[in-house]
Structure formats: C-alpha cells, structure tokens
Amino acid sequence: MKRIVIILGMFLTFSMAFAQEIESSEEELDSANFSTLLRTYNSIIKVHEEELTLIKIDLLGPLLYSMSNNEEGIDSVQSNFLGLAIERKFKPDWSWIVATTLRGDKKDVRKVTFGGGVRHYYNINRRILSGKSANNFSSNYLSAILNTAIKSVVDEHQISIDILYGIQRRIGKFGFVDWNIGIQNIVVPYSYKSVGVDLTSQITIGIGI
How many angstroms separate the CA atoms of 147 and 27, rounded? Predict the structure, then answer.
C-alpha cells in the first residue's frame, strides 16, 4: 500500500510538472504570436517612422462623387470631389493642420470649405514610454478647428469652431485613414440657420506623403 501511495504521488508530481511545462510553452507561444502580430501592425501603421509633416489627399470623396454622378439621367448628387490637408508637428504630441474641401455636383461647385486649427495627440506619451515613435501621425487626438464654409451659388458663408475627437492611422507607406466626430459651434450661420451647436463627423481615406 505504501508503495502504491509513493508511485501515485510521483505520478501526480510528474503530471503537475508536465502540465506546468505545457502551460509555460503555450504562454511563450502566445507571447511570440502576439509579438509578431504587434510588429506587423506597427509596421503597417508606421509607428517607428519619423514624420513631422504630412500632406493628405482624400480619395474617398472623389470616389463617392464619381460613383454618384457618372450615369446620365440620374439626379445630380452633391459630394466632396476634392479634399486636401497639411499637418505639421510642432511638438511630439501637438500639430497644426490646415485643410480645404470642394463640394459640388455635376454642374457646379456648391460649397468651398477652409479650416485650420490644432490637434493634440493625447496618447502619444504612452507610445513614447513604450519605445515607439511620436512622429508618425498614428494616434488618437482631440482637435479644435476654425472652419469657414462658403456656398458659392447663393453667396453665403458660415463660420464655426469645431471641437473634435478623432482617430488617425497611417496605412503602409503612403496611405492614411482619419475619422473624427464632435460638436460644431456655429458662430456665424447661414441665413436660414441660427447660432448654435450641431453634431459633425467626417472620414477621409487617401494618400499621405
């Protein structure tokens, strides 16, 4: 009986040690897989690339414009057919940005928008502490933008201050995606609107150089 207890104890000890070895191997494998995925993701969004200036050309707006206005006989649809922006870092977690968009249909340019302001990439410090570059424009941000929108056909304009939360990521060497949402504080409204606050959101996908 004593011998059986000793053998059973040895068997349990060996089983526990073997199970711990398997768990340790799985953890190492999971850690290796996670590290590989993280390196791949960081490579895609260019976290280690040093960039201080980014020129952005929107491709999503022109694509939607061409898709909505390329057939004869359909109603003319307004959409952005040109979008340009320049962003420049003046601190690791701060940048200024200026942008313009042209919106129209098949016949005319209906609205021209000019904007300029600042962005604060609030989670950059965490990236710096983890050894990642702060100069690649791939981060979440808070932004304040002064926008002027001019409706060319009716000769009216509107001025607003937009407070935004956004997410921007670089895609490969030349791509980018920029999405934001926030409140638009209208200080000079169109004639048919009044001073107040609206919700605003925008997404741009295109080329960043």
Answer: 51
- Which tokens belong to 77? 């649809």
Segments making up each domain of the chain, as ranges = 1-45, 49-208
DSSP string for 16-36? HHHHHHHHHHHHHHHHHHHHH
Using left for φ > 0, alpha for ψ between -120 and 50, and beta otherwise, residue 73 falls in: left
Contacts of 207 by beta carbon, 8 Å cutoff, 6+ apart: 56, 57, 59, 174, 175, 176
Q: What is the mean pLDDT of residues 47-54?
A: 77
Residue 167 tokens, joined? 């997410």
User: pLDDT by residue (tens digit) across 116-151?
Assistant: 999 999 988 777 777 666 678 888 999 999 999 998
**Per-residue model confidence as pLDDT tens digits over 3-33:** 444 444 544 454 444 445 544 544 554 555 6
Strand locations in 47-108, DSSP E? Answer: 53-58, 79-91, 94-104
Are 78 and 99 in contact by the 8 Å Cβ rule? The answer is no
The pLDDT score that the predictor gives to residue 123 is: 84
What is the maximal distance between C-alpha atoms in the chain?
Answer: 101
